[in-house]
Design goal:
By secondary structure, the chain is mainly α. The chain contains 7 helices and no strands. Helix 2 crosses helix 3.
Amino acid sequence: MTCYDRRDVGLLLLRLGTGGVLAAHGAQKLLGWFGGGGISGTGQFMESVGYAPGKQSAVAAGLAEAGGGTLLALGLATPAAGAAAAGAMAGAAALHMPNGFFAQEGGYEYAASLGLTAAGLAVTGPGRLSLDHALGHVLDRGWMVPAALGVTAAATALVIGARNKRVQRAKEGEQEALFEE
């Protein structure tokens, strides 16, 4: 019989809390649960803030959050789960960046916290109270951590970069007032 230590219990709590929140956010996007817009409503929102095409962006974000969050909570395929969730949160943080850091002002604080926790779990691993451990870490090999984080970082950079270009192009047509009235 294995004796679990504080680290295992702490990682379990981090996984359950972070994974549960992410899964709920993904369910809002994909299924319209918990007051969410579902794919259609979320797609319209995504399109309005520069993530195009909207429906595909909603599905991608919803799957990364719901899938990554569920897998994190279970401690299964932890490197890929953490990377996917971190990528989704980087996209959310980019959206909130113009509002500053603090969430009460609409800033990126919350998305950054979830993303960094998910990335930290991808790097640290799930602990012994996990499906990865029960399955002999077949989906949690050391090489998978940099691979998952690297691929996700590259894809996320491309998506955010394309969004930023669309937003910038839309702003180029707007003219700022020379004087305040």
